[in-house]
Amino acid sequence: MRDPRLRKARLEETIRELLSQLLLREAKDPRLAGVVISAVELSGDLRQAKAYFSVFGDAERERQAAEGLEQAKGFLRAELRRSLRADIVPELVFLRDKGYERADRVSQLLHQLHRAGQGEGGGE
Q1: 3-state DSSP helix/strand/coil percent for the chain, to nearest 5?
Q2: I need a surface site. Which of 12, 21, 101, 108 has the fewest CB within 10 A?
Q3: For the chain, which domains are there?
Q4: Are 69 and 29 contacting, i.e. CB atoms less than 8 angstroms apart?
């Protein structure tokens, strides 16, 4: 028997890849430039897909990207339906992926600590 968790994981990755390609190649909305889909999580019944997105820029840029994704949702679902050849395509919910921001902040803090450590002992 096939493991349904494996099927779900493959479907999540396929949807992530398709959304990424669509945003890169098909989306005409300038608000979607540079938007990256980092992960997709499907609900247990496969009827909802949470797509996590990242975009570089300030809060205004994030807001514009979120608006662009919301407006493109119908187009993206239709393209998913065509590409997946599925009767039922999950409802898309776009959420900001904060992981990159957290990693960048940790990196900045570590860099500051490293510089502060060199300043204390390095001058003697």
Answers
A1: 60, 15, 25
A2: 108
A3: 4-98 (3.30.300.20)
A4: no
